[in-house]
Write a structure and sequence with these properties.
10 helices; 36% helix; globular
Length: 300
Amino acid sequence: MKDEIIIASAMNNMVRIHAASTTALCEEANRLHDMRATSCAALGRTMTAAALIASDLKNPQEHVVVTINGGGPIGKISVQADGQGNVRGYTENPGVYLFRESDRKLDVGAGVGTNGTLTVSRDMGLKEPFTGVVNLTSGEIANDFAYYFAISEQTPSVVALGVLVETDGSVRAAGGMIIQLMPGAGEDVISAVEKIAGTMKPMSAYIDARMTPKEIISELFDEPEFMEERPVQWHCGCSKEKFADGLMLVDEKDLLKMIHEDHGAEAVCQFCSKKYRFSEEDLEDILERHRHVENRQRFH
């Protein structure tokens, strides 16, 4: 089953639904970062949520940045997603495995922690991105995003996120759904959505049963109106050229040290773990560009 995002409305346009299947996306992150199950589930849930939020963006240059830092052993989770369905992300510690015996589930909440914040930044091409920050309430991520929507965006929302990790460490099924009440929704709509939320299966269970996002929406809502279908996939977009631009910001003395003492440099992308090697000649070229920019700024 392909990864995709479906946007729909229901209940006379009083409810808006974003649903996604993200199994391949989460497995690619899992493979690139060589993750253990709890770190994988935490990153997968966050990437799915970011992809769902970004699916409202229209301009290819617009993007969403999500940062979760709850003080738990997983450390910071950082995810970027754009309106074209491109998503990338990483955790500071990909090697966390925590299991709750009480319900036989991965303990994502303990891995993420609750002593910190969830930050969502939407860059929509304006002077400054819109940024909302809320305290983490559970560390389980879905509840934290629901709290974010309620507090930061004043939009009552149901958020469901799931990543099912196999015993061999691979991602078996992953997906998510955001159900949001539109302004003017009456008590009957609110009650109906609360009932749906109370009877929903975990999102990973729907995906594991080979249900598409459209089928999941159709099972939960009567006569939904499907509005848009969007792709979602892992895409990093890093390059040696971008890292070279970053080295342009390094002090001249540090560049000289890399050239004459280290005889080169290596940059590693946090998002995809790809390594880029810069030879002495590469660094000398960057140093020359660095000096040219500094001289131009000095005379202006």
